[in-house]
Amino acid sequence: MRAFLSLLLMGVCWAKPLVYVLATGGTIAGNSASQLSSAYKAGTVGVGTLLKAVPQLKNLAAIQTEQISNIGSQEMDNATLLKLARRTQALLDRPEVHGVVITHGTDTMEESAYFLDLVVHSKKPIVFVGAMRNASSLSADGPLNLYNAIAVAADKQAQGKGVLVVMDGCIHAAREVSKTNTTHTDAFKSLNTGPLGSVLYGQVHFYMQPTRKHTFNSVFNIASIKSLPRVDILYAHENDNPDFIQAALAKGALGIISAGMGNGNLYPSVLQSLAGAVARGVVVVRSSRVGSGEITQPGEINDAKYNFLTSDNLNPSKARILLMVALTKTQDLKTLQQYFLEY
C-alpha cells in the first residue's frame, strides 16, 4: 500500500513536464543599491531566489535547479562553458527531463547559446534567458523573461529547433541572435533572419524554423571535446596595423577571426600579415564588424589566393565559437569552410 501511494504521489508530482534551470549568473541575478541606478553587481542572486520571485512558474512545469556558476557573463571562460554544455547534455539524456533553461548574462549569451547549439545532442528544448535590468531594478525584465523561457522549454513545439534564446517576448535561434543595444530591454535581435517566434505571458507561437544544422544533427559532440583551442578576434579599422596579429601568433592562436570592414575588407598591411599567418598554419576567417549580412565569395579579396575562409553571415563572436569547435575535429580548410556554410 505504501509503495502504491509513493508511485501515485510521484505521478502527481511529475504530471507537468520536468524542466531543469541551470543558473550561471548575469544581470538577471544582479542587485543594485538603488532601483533607479544603472550601477549594479551581476551574479549575486541565487537561482532559488530567482524562482521564488515568479511563483507562477509552478503552473508551467515541475522545476529543478542547479547553480553552475554565479558570474557576470563577461567572466565566462572555456572551462565554465564546457561544464555547462556537459551538464546540459547529461540532464537531457535522462528520459524524464523535458528541457533545460539556462539563465545567463547578456554580454556573451549569444556565444554560449551558439556553442551549445553546436555540441549538445538532443531534440529536447534548450532555452537561454537573461535580463537587461537587474533583479532589484524598477520594472525588472528578468521575472517575465524567465516565465516565458520556461513556458517555451515546457512546450512541445520547441523540440527539434536547436538552442533558443528568449528575451523580451521574442524566441530567437541561437545561431541568429545577437545583442544590439547596451541597455534597452529589446536588445536582442536576429538581424539576418528575424526571430523564430514570440511568447506572450507564456503563450508560445512559432512562425519560422532554423535551417542550419544544430544539436541532434551536428557532427560536433561535447562528449569528445576536452578543451578548446585559442582563437582570437581582431577588429579592423582605418589606418590599421598588423601588430595584434603578431601578438596573437606569439601567444599560440590556432585561428584568427578578422572583424573586417564592410564585406570583410582589410587594410593592406593587415591583409599581408594574415596571409603570412595562414602560411604558418593558422586558420584565418574573414567576418565583418558591420553586424549583419554575409561575407561574399568572391569579394574584393581573393580568398582562394590567400587561403582565407569566410564566415558566411556569422558575426565575429559566433565565427570564433564555430572555429574553436571545428578545430577540435579538423584543420582541413575545405572542410572548415563547409562547416561555415552548414552551421
Automatic annotation (TrEMBL):
Keywords of the record: Hydrolase
GO molecular function: asparaginase activity
Domain of life: Bacteria
Family annotation (CDD domains): L-asparaginase_II
Active site: 27, 27 (o-isoaspartyl threonine intermediate), 106
Domain L-asparaginase N-terminal, residue spans: 19-211
Family classification: Belongs to the asparaginase 1 family.
Protein's UniProt name: Probable L-asparaginase
The organism of origin for this protein: Helicobacter ailurogastricus
